[in-house]
Amino acid sequence: MVGFGTHARQPGQTDICFYGDTIRFTFDACGRIDYAGELSPGNIRAFYNGATAADYDSLVNDLLAYKEKHKPDDWVFYQLIRKVAQQLSPKQDDYIRYTLYKWFLLNKCGYNSTLNIAGDKLLLYVQSDENIYDIPFYSRNGKQYICLNYHDYGSVDRSKPFTEVAAMAPEAGRSFSYKLTQLPSFPQTDYKDKELDFSYNDRNYTFNIRVNPEVGNILKNYPVADYQLYFNAPLSSGTYNTLIPQLKKNVKGMSTKEGVDYLMHFTRYAFLYEPDVDNFGKERRLSPEQTLLYDHSDCEDRAALFYCLVKEIYGLSMIVLEFPKHVTIAVRFDKPVGKPIIYNGHAYTVCEPTPQTQDLSIGELSSELKREKYAVAFAYEPK
Question: Would you give the end-to-end CA distance of the chain in angstroms?
Fold first, then answer.
């Protein structure tokens, strides 16, 4: 249990469960700030000034103490801010006030967060330097602001002018990063067992791994971002410790190329293929752990998982190849196989982790893709 302070819980203190931790927050001095009237910059500023005048320092300090102790990535920390805002003003009771509390707490925790009024909708934005593709954003003074709550509305009429309310806290200058470097230390009770099987060289392999639905919850509203952010997202400890040792054991004794071929076939055939539109109703990019969690995945998702496995087990240099309608991986070996992809003076071997009409070997590209142009989305070099 993670607690702030060693004394017993006092009146006005509330414990919030957050992915394995129990965090004690002080709400006793926090008078609820009501929001009344139309959506306008003046009324929003009045709410912010009222919240600032109220004693929210203990609450903000509790958030910052958790951040300092556990160093969560910004996206995970935002999930905690959402939980605290839900405690202050339940989303289902008053969505506007709930959104204002998130904005207030983001500001007070140092993030450059703004609001935009779009008719009767209140859009929450945060300044970020990363490329995000499927949600609204705007630029001001050379900085990009990305919407955090677009999923709550589904659609917004972008033809009408938006009215901005800028960040109001002097300390709100921090840029928000969507990069994922670690996942929370989930309790074992959050995990569930999953069986994977595939055949390789006329031998059947069965894997019993543990996957965590909470990872899906954390990333439920994660936007479509650059491939590099997804591909380098880590596995949770429970999933890592039940998958990677089994794979390492199975490739022990194989040459590096044979082992990569084994990982390529595992990624290709241990999961069912389904396009994102059919699977989720829209385009999504899954992290390696989400690919393990869900029963169906597409080429981008398998490329992310294969990249993760090669990185963890062999630490080889790789490039991500982006075709108009396909994504795949090329790996740098001591000697390339087949017709290599030349990038920055190095030869890379295509390794296709997604099922094709043929059972492609290392170094083989499907006949359809041979006629297509590609771009190198990003390159990985081991540190």
Answer: 35
